[in-house]
Amino acid sequence: MGVSSPVSRQELAEAVENSQAYASPPSWITQDANRKAGRGLYLIPEIDGVTSVEVEPVEPVEPVAVEPVAVELIKGMTGGDRVTLVPQKFKGFVKWGHYSDVKTFVKSGNFVTLFVTGLSGNGKTLMVEEVCADLGRECFRVNLTCQTDEDDLLGGFRLVNGETVWQDGPVVTAMKVGAVLLLDEVDLASNRIMCLQSVLEGKGVFLKKVGQWVTPAPGFAVIATANTKGKGDDTGNFVGTGVMNEAFLERFDYCFEQPYATPATEKKILMGSGCGDDDFADKLTRWADMIRKTFYQDGCDSIVSTRRLVKIVKAYNVFNDKSKALQLSLARFDDKTKEGFIKLYEKIDAELIDADGNDVVDATETASATGNECPF
């Protein structure tokens, strides 16, 4: 039998039911004012002259079995059977700065909220993880972005084996088991994290989607790390960080300002990271310290972090070539900055040679360089 436009809403509903392609009459027809031909009538010229045909039934498809590993991961976030999240100890870690104070807070078992701020790559996150590793405490690390929202943090409904079930988010799970919640790069988040207000007060949180109030277990603590103090960044080095809500920041009990380690401490860090050359580690830390002093005095726009020094050491251990290790590790900077950093190191290490065994440093230039001179 042929069909033609216009069609009634009843005819449209019957067509939808028979096709099983839509749950209800499609809105691109019912909501389009140009398609309305009267009360309950819709213009669908596309079907004029179309003859209805019998559609052969499709054989049902057997459901695909869910891998057991995926099921275990899902169960993990619900507080059931799960793998422990106690961080592994980092061999060679040096306990410096605010490590002992943070450890004392966590060890006390009291609820506390800490805000750790400092420039990139100086060991903020690693310090928190090592505190938890040393105390055998679970650490739920959540890396925040501008897209992080309540569903990511507190939990939501998920499709599991064909059924919609509620799953706790990392914040709720950490509360239930009394773990340390690490909010990493918190200053990159948007106002969507304001759902954590009551969590930061230690009172618990109400899961409105399931009507459940969750109170924190003993030992629960919140530690946030950031490159700023939540007031934004005007240097251009930390793109994406923004001004954080003052009410949110005020709920952190204490703020730790973490600088870069001293050259002596940083040398220990490099030696603990696998650097077998005491002299190289010494020169690297002196070099990095000079760059940082220049950076603080607005003499350059970039900085060499402790993390970057460790990368240099790792490359040196692989290639046994100082020049190549520096080149590979500093390639992330623009050409002018990279060349300036390398020239400064050359003035510190007169024995720097390239992969072919040739001197990289001009002897005259090295002799005339002063200890505090920076070529960029």
Please name the defining characteristics of this protein.
376 residues; alpha/beta; Rossmann fold; 3-stranded antiparallel β-sheet; 15 helices; 37% helix; elongated
Annotate the secondary structure layout.
Blueprint lengths: L1 E2 L3 E2 H11 L7 H4 L5 E3 L2 E2 L7 E2 L16 H9 L22 H10 L4 E5 L6 H12 L3 E5 L6 H5 E6 L2 E6 L1 H8 L2 E5 L12 H4 L4 E3 L4 E3 L6 E6 L19 H4 L4 E4 L5 H10 L5 H19 L9 H14 L2 H9 L4 H14 L14 H6 L8
Parallel strand pairs: 6-13, 6-14, 7-10, 10-13
Antiparallel strand pairs: 1-5, 2-4, 3-4, 8-9, 11-12
Helix pairs in contact: 4-5, 10-11, 11-14, 12-13
Descriptive overview:
A hairpin with a 2-residue loop joins β8 and β9. The longest helix is centred in the C-terminal third of the chain and has 19 residues. The protein is built from 15 helices and 14 strands. The protein has three domains: 50 residues, no CATH class; 190 residues, P-loop containing nucleotide triphosphate hydrolases (Rossmann fold); 106 residues, no CATH class. It is elongated. The chain has a five-stranded parallel beta sheet with strand order 7-10-13-6-14. The protein has a three-stranded antiparallel beta sheet with strand order 2-4-3. A two-stranded antiparallel sheet has the order 1-5. The C terminus is likely disordered. The chain is α/β, with parallel strands linked by helices.
> What percentage of amino acids are in beta strands?
5-15%
Shape call: elongated
Q: Could you name the ranges where pLDDT drops below 50 across 5 or more consecutive residues?
A: 63-79, 359-374
State the end-to-end CA separation: 83 Å
Roughly what is the average pLDDT, rounded to an integer? Answer: 83
CATH class of the largest domain: Alpha Beta
- For this structure, what is the CATH homologous superfamily of the largest domain? P-loop containing nucleotide triphosphate hydrolases
| CATH level 3 topology of the largest domain | Rossmann fold
Tally of strands? 14
CATH architecture of the largest domain: 3-Layer(aba) Sandwich
Count every helix, treating DSSP H or I runs of 4 or more residues as helices. Answer: 15
- What is the gyration radius calculated from CA atoms? 30 Å
Q: How many domains would you count in the coordinates?
A: 3
The biggest beta sheet, please? 5 strands, parallel
Order of helices and strands: EEHHEEEHHEHEHEEHEHEEEHEHHHHHH
Strand arrangement, largest sheet?
A: 7-10-13-6-14
Structural class: alpha/beta
Q: Provide the helix percentage.
A: 25-40%
